[in-house]
Specification:
Helix Hairpins; binds magnesium ion; 5 helices
Length: 108
């Protein structure tokens, strides 16, 4: 398992995927077969926790932690499934750049 140094200026998403998966594996989260739909639901659950942090006017650090939990679950999942998340994000950013203003006047 590659250790992430606290003072490192740049870390790639690929490295985060690798690290999150390694940590989860070392903690036994992948010892048994896991249901993909449940794992996606758990990603959602972290966003719900983030929403609750907002609604309860909790400190920004608590909101950040819930958002981090969501990212960690996504990164872990992508590590397990060998999903090239970093490349997918970069590709999607380029796709979004070519979309019209507010993506064709969408409200949200
Ligand atoms: Mg959480």
């Amino acid at each position: 398992m590659k250790e992430i140094k606290e003072k490192k200026e740049h870390i790639s998403i690929g490295e985060l995927v690798e690290t999150c998966y390694s940590v989860a594996k070392s903690k036994g989260w992948w010892d048994k077969r896991r249901n993909d739909a449940e794992l996606i639901a758990l990603m959602h659950s972290e966003l719900s926790e983030a929403l609750e942090a907002l609604r309860e006017h909790k400190p920004k650090a608590e909101l950040a932690e819930e958002l981090a939990d969501c990212c960690i679950r996504i990164f872990d999942y992508c590590g397990r499934k060998k999903i090239a998340l970093e490349q997918a994000i970069l590709k999607k950013i380029e796709k979004n750049k070519k979309r019209p203003y507010r993506h064709g006047n969408k409200k949200y």
